[in-house]
Amino acid sequence: MSRLKTSHIVEAAFWLTLVAIFFAYSFEFNKEIEIYKYGATLWPRTILFLMALAAIGQLIDQYKNGDTTSSSKMAAAHEEPEANPEHSGLAWYTSTAIILAIPFVYMNLPEYITGSMNVAEDAREQTLANMKLMCAAGLFILYLILGWRNHVGAILALPIFFAAVLQDMGFYAMAPLFIVGVMILMGERRVSRMALVMPLIYGLLLLFFVALLYVGLPTGNINPFYNFGNWIVTLLQ
Amino acid sequence: MDTFNNFLTGTTTLFSDPVGILIFFGGVIGGMLFGAIPGVSMLTLAAILLPFTAHLSAEHGIMLFSVIYCTGVYGGAITAILFNIPGAPENAPTAFDGYPMTLDGRAGKAVGAAVMCSAIGGVVSCVIMMFATAPIAGWAISAFGPPEIFALVFFGLAVAASVGAKTFWKGWLSIMAGLMIAVIGLDPVGGIERYNFDMPYLAAGIHFIPTILGFFAVSEIFIQAEKKATGAYKAPKLSVDFPTFKELWMQKIAVIRSIIIGFFCGILPGIGATLAAFMGYNEAARWSKNKQKFGTGEIEGVISSETANNAATGAAMIPLLALGLPGGALTAMMVGVFQMHDMEPGPLVFINSPDLVWVVFSAMFFANVSILLVGFLEAKTIVNLLRIPFQFLAPMILLLATVGAYAVRGLTIDVIVMFVAGVAGFFLRRSGYSVAGIVLGLILGKIGEQTFAQAMQMLHFEFSGFLGRPIALGLLIAGAMTIIGSVYGAFFKKVPAVARTD
Questions:
Q1: Is A182's CB within 8 Å of B415's CB?
Q2: N or C: less crowded end of chain A, CB within 10 Å?
Q3: Distance from C-alpha of B56 to C-alpha of B62, rounded to nearest angstrom
Q4: What is the ipTM for the molecules in this complex?
């Protein structure tokens, strides 16, 4: 009797789709190498073949045995606890996918909008900077709305959002906000504690990496973030 | 005598260099601390430190990682005993009896036993490593060509796939995913760009440092964050009451047995300390007079598991240094340290950099000795740092990872790749996949493809050429048998899931 669940089929579909995409793309570099008759495709195609076999094997195994798959205590040691029911299911995954897409929207939308506007070449840079600020603010509000209902999704997306704005707004200006954001998402609500811990973490990091090791962190390229970043670097070095 | 002289030279070099001493003690404390703090592990620390080893000499970088390896394997026992949260899979059997001892109010005895036995297992393993690695490396220079190395990579991956994840299929898929990430970039024979998807960033391949940081450090934070969100996170608490010498002396046979088991498991690429700990525990349960008490708080269970996993650490350095093949996630990161200094681990390290080898060996020896000294101190004092709330620890670790990923090449895209890898790692781990398997595949993928191409050119593209190379043939057959056995086990020998000792 079948013990397959929807998640098993989604899992198999994920791996097989990945195999299909990578196999199709392998024709792009299917070129001959003079000294190596197997060319550049034998190795990846063999891996893809084995990956497809494993995905099908897993599906058959799940069809026969369901999730009762731990064959030893050793295998059990590698298991993470079961996902919380609140954090699984189609609605949760859809909401998480949307919230995770926000940083990638930020990385492409300002360029797209500025490109589609009829802006003079000399004003383009400033327009793009303004557009990035507006998009960042708008998308952050969207992030807060979605994150309010999907706490785990918000935790997953925040670091990617932080990384996406690093190039434009710099590490120095964004790190304090990021520290506070992570603390709030991890359940900290005491303002006094956050006001004490945030400068401590920020200060220690900057002292160690910027003042001591001279690690160059992104200063951003949009004002006032750029000026702020440079001010901190000048202050520390 | 040569070994002893070399050891003395390594020790003198290590302790006559103030920077070396600082790095050594930093590694000892850091490994224990990160091993002991719930929610992070020695792998988190190693991943964070990996990019910064570029600023250290190769000697200091490798030494730091080897010290973290020794003390981190011990550190993971603390969380296993106190909270039933093994710091790493190799500490899982420690929790089987360690946690019930905590529930009985005997946490201190379990921690004390872990301290003593980790140190004993590690020290003995180090001594054997010092005597064995150089002869094996010498033999490997003549006996190991590309076909043998490819066969060993195949065997290692086959074994890692079979035992490294929730099921064989998930282990295998994890390894394959790692191998596919390694394929992105330039083909090692013809330099042809593969899977760049018209993105200049992908032309040179995905850098392993952001990937490792993402899969280990970041995904760990996400897993713990989810627990915080659902209220499943457990805050630490501790009491200390160490075992007496007599209690430990009564377990001497278990210790010796576990050292032997641990060493032989550690030497196999792809499994190392995890299999060592489980086999050590299983054999102790099989031979013990109190076998029925195993799983309910038997000190012998803690002793066997912790002796065996630390005995595997010295042994795991043998394939790394003698053959250039990492056996687990941390030794795979050590390959990264070598590569960042334009070096390749392998038998030639003994000829080109003997100082490095002996400083590392000495550091590992003293790191295991220091478990005995600092371990007791740590259990009583430093362990108070466990009380740092996770909501303050998490932003610190995420920012350290950010700085680490960015510092490698000065690219913010590396930071994005790291956090995307963290999210991927979070979902894969939740589904039972092994991030260690992915990283092993990523690191061994490049070695595997390169040696396969060299082997085929050497054998004139005839697969039958492997028949004339007994070592390669033996390893290929062993790898194939491992896979066949796992597939057979998956389909025909299914047993119900084993509950963790909660």
A1: no
A2: N
A3: 9
A4: 0.91
